[in-house]
Design brief:
mainly beta, 16-stranded mixed beta sheet, globular, 665 residues, 8-stranded antiparallel beta sheet
């Protein structure tokens, strides 16, 4: 939960020469992780879940993470959890270390018994430029930043003058970037030369490290200086700004020197390489902001950006109680932008008086709720983590939430990307105790409940049966099973016993089927294809149906597709002699009161791949098919009726051992 509030006019140079070991070594990471000297002001017992990712928005596994009372590592998904640990409600510093990356950190403000959230972006050590130490030089950084080195100013880890080639890794961080708060160290909270605690504002950041030809870290010698130069990227441009360096052991910025506006850049000199900023200090006011839905339910895990004097701040995440607590600049009006993925809502708060503990509640209007249930088979997952991402690219930034102890998470879909229908949201989950992980599925914004099974056998492959005419005299055909995805280790079983991926068919074939097994995943799927599209006209198949309804319940029952002619089917519930199928919604939500037959609702299947409804349920609703998809022996029917918002999904699993005909758009 980044709480660097506000980020107004800072220039940070992340020159992480804080350990004297080789670039890819982690020998001294214990010192980096365990050195905490800050005074604990108000110790509480709390929890935090964090996500560590890289510049490609990919999770970083096996990163070392520490707070003053505990240590852990990120799992394969890039997550770490500190559960019921001692923390400081006035600021708990989180350190993150991974070989090949700059040191990273975050600051959270936990409450007793409440779970909070953290995002940390690791920046890799990438070579940017080089110079000869004896001559000095300039290193330009993409985005407009520069670093100037004096001649003969570089020393090795023993303080000896270094005269060879210096390799520099550096990058400039734009102050308007959405992920700035994740990439910068700690919070913008500092100690001035007078010893006063202040909040800071930022102009931008540069990240850099110096190495000799063997990969050993270098630094600036005593009495020498390096000059940092950063773009004046904000509208408010004071002529001078104090310089600050970041104290890793305290988790706080320390004032030292100043930078001057020269044309379109700020220039300042630094005497040692650590995290440097040129910041505007503000007297502090402490406040807690709470975000709730109209019914009072807390909005957890929502990003809240603070904007002060037209400058963007970093980003905080609301905790499980819907709150963010932080130091704000006193006597300032603060613009808040609350968002999850791409949908936003704006608020105004402040000004706050110095030292006050303000409590302010904001209501997120117009809630449209959906429920996500995380389970393992029939059992709820008590320690689950749900991951969301937006768009069709797997590199999109990850957002996460924690379900309750029953595996249930209720969320407002309007706070996701559903304000932009062209950008779907994908969801997956894992059990933080067992490590069991689900596949990824698209979150249905109209469905009342989305079930994620972390123990479901993930048969992550698909196949297409391709039938081509291979000879004319006599006529015969070749059936080929083309598989994509999965492990690549497959076996094939055709209906006449063949075990190759392709077989020959005589002219008189009507339907061909093959069972494909992913031998590594130990799962199978069956694929069938008819010679003619009309091959499904005489379909009479018994199915097991699992239906989720708008009421949030799930039920399983059995139906029969009874062909009534003209590609139309009665869907008969054989377990209750229920002629009115109604997608099972009434049986699920109303129980015994929905046992009587009635209505004339029928499913229409045209050419095996066009589905619609005719008639109405016994209650009078007309149903609509929102989406139909097939996967082997399962057909997924996503539906709603005109008694909005009654909607859900039914999974029809065939009991005859065959697959559904492929659906085409």
């Amino acid at each position: 939960m980044k709480t660097n509030l506000p980020l107004l006019l800072t220039a940070t140079i992340l020159l992480g020469l804080l350990w004297s070991c080789k670039k890819d070594d982690v020998i001294t990471s214990d010192k980096y992780l365990t050195t905490f000297t800050a005074k604990v002001e108000n110790e509480v017992t709390s929890s935090v879940t964090g996500y560590v990712y890289d510049e490609n928005n990919k999770p970083v596994a096996d990163a070392e993470v520490a707070i003053y009372s505990a240590r852990t590592r990120t799992n394969e998904h890039g997550f770490f959890v500190f559960e019921n640990k001692k923390m400081d409600s006035k600021g708990t510093f989180i350190k993150v270390r991974k070989a090949g990356y700059l040191p990273a950190s975050d600051m959270i403000y936990p409450s007793p018994g409440i779970s909070c959230f953290s995002y940390v972006k690791l920046l890799s050590s990438v070579s940017t430029g080089e110079f000869i130490s004896g001559s000095g030089g300039k290193v330009s950084v993409s985005g407009g930043a520069n670093i100037y080195f004096e001649p003969s100013s570089i020393v090795d880890d023993k303080g000896n003058l270094y005269t060879g080639k210096v390799s520099v890794t550096a990058r400039y961080l734009n102050p308007t970037a959405d992920d700035l708060g994740d990439a910068m160290p700690g919070a913008l909270y500092g100690s001035s030369t007078s010893g006063e605690k202040v909040v800071l504002g930022t102009l931008g950041m540069v990240v850099a490290e110096l190495y000799d030809i063997n990969g050993n870290l270098l630094n600036i010698g005593n009495g020498k200086k390096a000059t940092i130069e950063l773009p004046a990227a904000t509208q408010n441009r004071p002529s001078t700004i104090p310089l600050w360096w970041f104290d890793e052991s305290e988790g706080i910025w320390v004032e030292e020197g100043e930078a001057t506006l020269q044309g379109q850049v700020y220039r300042g000199q630094v005497s040692h390489f650590s995290f440097w900023n040129c910041d505007q200090p503000y007297v502090t006011a402490y406040a807690c902001l709470k975000f709730v839905y109209e019914d009072g339910t807390p909005v957890q895990g929502m990003t809240v950006k603070a904007i002060v004097d037209s400058y963007n701040s970093s980003y905080s995440q609301t905790d499980s109680d819907g709150r963010i607590c932080s130091f704000f600049p006193k006597d300032k009006v603060i613009n808040l932008v609350a968002s999850q993925l791409n949908c936003t809502k704006e608020f105004i708060t402040g000004p706050y008086a110095e030292g006050t503990n303000a409590e302010v509640t904001f209501i997120m209007p117009g809630r449209t709720e959906t429920t996500i249930l995380v389970k393992c088979g029939d059992l709820p997952v008590s320690k689950g983590i749900i991951k969301f991402r937006s768009g069709g690219d797997a590199s999109e930034r990850t957002f996460f939430m924690r379900p309750d102890g029953d595996g249930v998470l209720k969320v407002d879909i309007k706070l996701f990307n559903f304000c932009n229908a062209s950008s779907p949201v994908y969801v997956s989950a894992f059990d933080n105790i067992t490590g069991n992980t689900s596949g990824e599925k698209q979150l249905d914004n109209l469905q009342a409940i989305n079930i994620i099974d972390v123990c479901e056998v993930k048969c992550e492959f698909s196949a297409v049966l391709d039938i081509t005419k291979s000879a004319d005299n006599p006529p015969n055909y070749t059936a080929s099973c083309i598989v994509t995805g999965g492990s690549g280790n497959f076996s094939y079983q055709w209906q006449k016993g063949e075990t190759t991926s392709s077989i020959q068919l005589a002219e008189d074939f009507e339907r061909v089927c093959v069972i494909v097994e992913d031998k590594t995943a130990k799962c199978t799927k069956t694929y069938c294809k008819s010679k003619y599209l009309s091959g499904c006209d005489n379909l009479n198949v018994l199915c097991d149906v699992t239906t989720t309804g708008w009421c949030g319940k799930t039920d399983q029952f059995e139906i029969l597709f009874k062909h009534t002619g003209n590609n139309t089917y009665d869907l008969i519930r054989t377990d209750k002699n229920e002629a009115d199928f109604s997608m099972g919604a009434y049986a699920v939500c109303y129980g015994p009161s929905a046992t009587l037959p009635g209505g004339d609702l029928k499913l229409v299947i045209t050419d095996c791949n066009k589905l619609s409804y005719t008639g109405k349920s016994r209650w009078g609703e007309t149903y609509f098919v929102r989406e139909v998809r097939t996967d082997g022996d399962k057909m997924y029917l996503s539906w709603k009726n005109d008694y909005d918002p009654e909607a859900g999904e039914s999974i029809l699993k065939r009991k005859d051992g065959l697959t559904w005909p492929p659906l085409v758009k």
